[in-house]
């Protein structure tokens, strides 16, 4: 069990009292229990604790102190929220120092552990009185008994949920809906299911909006819904997009801090999204990038379920689930913290503004994490397989953070949503301000063209050829949509499409060339041959001809590679093949590595050609 977080020294009042309760979680998975009991905002809402206002106070050294204010019963409370300490799936500790009210301090500590009987959790409350009333509350035992009675019921619910015996983690009061909201929800559900984008999930979404906890409504993330409902992510995204059009949800764009991942600017549309923002917590200014820090989230329409202000809990492990370790170490001290990190990429940083390091953890060993005298992050050689040594050689307390770089698991970034055909079908007017542009770290672009289209018109006649070209556009659009891409535009007989995932783009290209023969047979034998090129890289999103478009060297490269296609084959850039999932789709397919001089590029460009003969009829 970890020691109390540094800085938790009593500032006023009498001696603290500590009481604990133990909960058994037999048969449950530790992470399933953690996800709910460490979700302190959800837990506090279910416990009927009030929302509170947050006051941020920037400090001269660039850090920020956070204070809360709320009315609880007859008391007006004002307190400082100190950093919550935690190690994912193991323990958390949340300290508060009160400046008003009957208590001087309150520390909640929860720890998961195992014994011979199985998984158990120990919840400990340490409280110090500020005055005679506080002394009486604590020494009578009433304060602890009331808290443990309430919290034990929630722990029992979380256990049942982890075992699959409940549909929701906690019982909670019925949410307040707007007058007439029930009928509007039913009408919206019917409208959604009347479209191709409901996927039989509209009633489930309607019930979610009608009854879920308020913390679930603050930022509805389609990717999290997909995981929760065990449905494909593409269906959950389609559902939420259509729900906006049908009046059930509103969409919001968040500009996330690249360091702490918190949204520091929000806008209802891309045309209102600022070009950058400032994060007071991290003391950094940052720009926007569709692939890195612009996220689309949803919440109920205000006409159905208005969401109030304030917080149930500002800090907490599940408010930053990508953070696996969050521990404060006093100046000049060190601490060995038992952890079990899954292999993968991580970032070492501090809660306070400053340095950071990206590392790879694997092989069962853990590096040391040191803050030197200047506040810089240092990575010490691996020493142990079960604990990470945190060394604070600076002159002030530091909160050490180890975050997984897989934070995007539930973030529907702008590059991903704007390269979906559903988004472009439903939100064609969702564009940037005229003259505005946004960088995208990586996007995949596909260009196709009909080979010999002039000869086709001469061979079958203008009317038949025109019909064939239009049908070919529909064929391409359907295949692109099926692989989570979007048709950006047509240029004569050519098509430009965009994808967020290289593997999706390659799968779409393979499907297009493999289905051409079937398409030709369906058209009565009037054959078409498609030239196809793919490239990925950074680009600029702009508004062109009242739609989102792309500009830059990546666009030019993809178009030039399409020109190198002979028809029936696929030409791919080497940059695209650096993606392992994309390259794996081409395993076993005959191809050739070639180089060509492309217009607009100074040096010869290497690429790979997948032979058309290998694709025909497969």
Describe it for me?
- The chain has 4 domains: 17-162, Alpha-D-Glucose-1,6-Bisphosphate, Chain A, domain 4, CATH 3.30.530; 181-305; 322-406; 429-614, Nucleotide cyclase, GGDEF domain (Alpha-Beta Plaits).
- Residues 1-10 have low confidence and may be disordered.
- Helix 5 (181-193) runs antiparallel to helix 6.
- It is elongated and about 100 Å long.
- The strands form 5 sheets. Strands 1, 2, 3, 4, 5, 6, 7, 8, 14, 16, 17 and 21 form a 12-stranded antiparallel β-sheet that branches. Strands 22, 23, 24, 25, 26, 27, 28 and 29 form an 8-stranded mixed β-sheet that branches.
- The protein has 17 helices and 29 strands.
- By secondary structure, it is α+β, with helices and mostly antiparallel strands.
Question: Biggest sheet: strands, sense, closure?
Answer: 12 strands, antiparallel
Q: So, the CATH homologous superfamily of the largest domain?
A: Nucleotide cyclase, GGDEF domain
CATH class of the largest domain: Alpha Beta
**What is the CA-based Rg, rounded?**
28 Å
Question: Using DSSP, what is the number of strands?
Answer: 29
Q: Which stretches of 5+ consecutive residues score pLDDT under 50?
A: 1-10
Strand-residue proportion? 25-35%
- Shape designation: elongated
CATH topology annotation of the largest domain: Alpha-Beta Plaits
Mean residue pLDDT: 89
Distance between the termini: 59 Å
Total helices: the number is 17
Judging by the overall fold, what is the CATH architecture of the largest domain? 2-Layer Sandwich
Q: How many structural domains are formed by the residues?
A: 4
Helix fraction?
25-40%
Structural class by helix and strand composition: alpha+beta
């Amino acid at each position: 069990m970890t020691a109390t977080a540094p800085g938790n020294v009593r500032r006023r009042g009498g001696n603290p009292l500590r009481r604990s309760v133990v909960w058994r979680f037999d048969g449950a998975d530790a992470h399933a229990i953690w996800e709910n009991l460490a979700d302190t905002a959800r837990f506090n809402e279910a416990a009927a604790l009030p929302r509170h206002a947050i006051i941020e106070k920037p400090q001269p050294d660039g850090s920020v102190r956070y204070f809360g204010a709320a009315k609880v019963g007859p008391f007006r409370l004002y307190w400082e929220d100190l950093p919550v300490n935690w190690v994912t799936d193991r323990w958390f500790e949340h300290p508060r120092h009160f400046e008003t009210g009957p208590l001087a301090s309150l520390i909640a500590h929860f720890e998961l552990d195992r014994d011979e009987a199985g998984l158990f959790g120990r919840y400990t409350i340490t409280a110090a009185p500020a005055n005679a009333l506080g002394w009486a509350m604590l020494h009578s035992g009433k304060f602890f008994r009331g808290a443990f009675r309430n919290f034990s019921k929630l722990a029992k619910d979380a256990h049942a949920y982890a075992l699959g015996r409940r549909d929701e983690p906690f019982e909670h009061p019925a949410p307040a809906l707007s007058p007439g909201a029930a009928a509007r929800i039913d009408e919206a559900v019917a409208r959604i299911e009347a479209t191709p984008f409901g996927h039989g999930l509209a009633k489930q979404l309607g019930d979610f909006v009608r009854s879920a906890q308020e913390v679930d409504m603050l930022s509805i993330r389609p990717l999290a819904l997909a995981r929760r409902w065990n449905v494909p992510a593409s269906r959950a995204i389609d559902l939420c997009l259509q729900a906006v059009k049908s009046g059930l949800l509103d969409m919001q764009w968040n500009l996330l801090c690249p360091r702490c991942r918190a949204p520091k600017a929000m806008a209802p549309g891309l045309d209102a999204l600022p070009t950058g923002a400032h994060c007071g917590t991290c003391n950094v200014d940052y720009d926007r990038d569709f692939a890195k820090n612009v996220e689309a989230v949803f919440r109920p329409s205000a006409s159905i379920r208005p969401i109030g202000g304030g917080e149930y809990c500002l800090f907490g492990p599940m408010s930053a689930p990508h953070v696996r370790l969050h521990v404060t170490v006093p100046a000049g001290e060190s601490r060995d913290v038992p952890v079990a990190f899954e292999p993968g990429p991580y970032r070492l940083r501090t809660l306070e503004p400053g340095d950071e390091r990206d590392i790879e953890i694997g092989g069962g060993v853990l590096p040391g994490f040191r803050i030197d005298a200047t506040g810089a992050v240092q990575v010490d050689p691996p020493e142990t397989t079960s604990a990470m040594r945190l060394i604070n050689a600076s002159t002030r307390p530091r909160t050490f953070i180890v975050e997984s770089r897989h934070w995007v698991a539930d973030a529907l970034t702008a590059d991903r949503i704007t390269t979906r055909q559903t988004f472009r079908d439903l939100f064609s007017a969702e564009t940037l301000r005229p003259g505005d542009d946004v960088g995208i770290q990586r996007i995949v672009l596909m260009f196709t063209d009909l080979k010999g289209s002039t000869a086709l018109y001469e061979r079958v006649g203008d009317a038949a050829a025109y019909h064939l070209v239009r049908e070919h556009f529909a064929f391409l659009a359907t295949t692109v949509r099926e692989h989570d891409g979007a048709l950006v535009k047509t240029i004569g007989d050519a098509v430009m499409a965009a994808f967020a995932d290289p593997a999706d783009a390659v799968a779409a290209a393979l499907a297009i060339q493999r289905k051409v023969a079937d398409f030709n047979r369906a058209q009565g034998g009037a054959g078409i041959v498609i030239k196809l090129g793919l490239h990925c890289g950074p680009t600029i999103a702009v508004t062109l001809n009242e739609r989102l478009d792309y500009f830059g060297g990546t666009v030019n490269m993809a178009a030039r590679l399409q020109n190198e296609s002979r028809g029936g084959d696929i030409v791919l850039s080497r940059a695209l093949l650096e993606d392992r999932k994309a390259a794996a789709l081409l395993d076993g397919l005959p191809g050739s590595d070639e180089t060509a001089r492309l217009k607009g590029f100074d040096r010869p460009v290497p690429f790979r050609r997948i032979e058309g003969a290998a694709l025909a009829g497969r």
